[in-house]
Amino acid sequence: MKKLALVTALAAVAVGTWWFLGKDRDATVAPYRFVTIERGDLESTVAATGTLGAVKTVQVGTQVSGQIQEIFVDFNDRVRKGQLIARIDPTLLQQNVRDAEARLERARAEVGQRQSDYDRNLKLYESQAITESEFSTVKYNLAVAEADMKSTEISLERAKQNLAYTNIYSPISGVVVERNVDVGQTVAASLAAPQLFLIAEDLARMEILASVDESDIGRITEGQTARFTVQAYTDDVFTGTVRQVRLQSTMQENVVNYTVVINVTNDDGRLRPGMTATVDFLVETARDVLMVSNAALRFRPTDRMIAALRERRQQNRENMPDSIRQRIAERRGTPDGTRGTNGPPGGGDFGGFGGFAGASDATMLWYLDETGEPVATRVRSGISDGRMTEISGRRIEEGMDVISGVNQSGESGSPNPFQNNQPRRRPGGF
Question: pTM, whole model, 2 decimals?
């Protein structure tokens, strides 16, 4: 029984394999790949990347050195202008103030002493009891004492101001984005003011600094609409407006880039400083137009397709009445009415379709007629979003299938691949 079951299973596998391989052998591979002409909206954009940031940020530092005694705010705290946010230990600076006050008292006493000497010697000088040279020395000593007192007063004011600098106040109203110190940390303000906090003025209004390649910067203008996404919200698309196109360029990996500033509203607070934004600048828009995949516009026909189409065109010309053929010849300036070889690349004598021969935006689309043979029509291309391109022409319509590629396996299966392919939808004959 086991041997019988095994033989039965092997037979079933063999039959299934034979059927599957036979089915594939009988199947006919279509010689062409097709795409469909669609109707819809197209947008031409310029892509760039940038970083989100607050429109205005202020680095809060300190003008005096010392140990952080108290911190009154933390990350994400909202602060108002003039609010006390930190304090540096004032002990040493208080001592400096007292020392300056003592030196000022000494200077004042010195001035009082010199003033008394001056008043006494003035009477002696007037009575000619002392010489002018002696009196000049007394007067000089008074002037020096008064200057020393003024210098000491300034030193006291400086000491008091440095003492006031131990209290760190917020210069603007906003949100604390960074806090770079902790209680007990010593900060030194010898050469440059160390940054204690970074405060963003208003995160409801932000900006993107986007880097745009020099090849695209000419298409960016102030007031232009920009769309962008961030990794935190991949399903959401945000919008902004170009505020500035900076003249200063930067070089990155031998590529010249320019910085574009984009204004962004952030009323819901979801966007945060430092986020990476993938930006699309909206350059041009086309509404309710015919469009086709770029693969169809890049398609180049095979030599067999060109030869077959030339032969068909020759037969059509031979079947024309002499009067019509003569008018075509007069219009084209050739004896037999042909176009010569001034057609598009790979297209031979197919130039001039659609009534805009020689236009820089003219191109060819290939499709199958009602007999299943390939024919070409010239169309004018418009804006592109990188995947689809706007097209216009006399022989195209929505839903029409056009050739986007050739399947080599399909052509090798028959000497005439046109006969093995079912006719595709088309608006009319060639």
Answer: 0.66
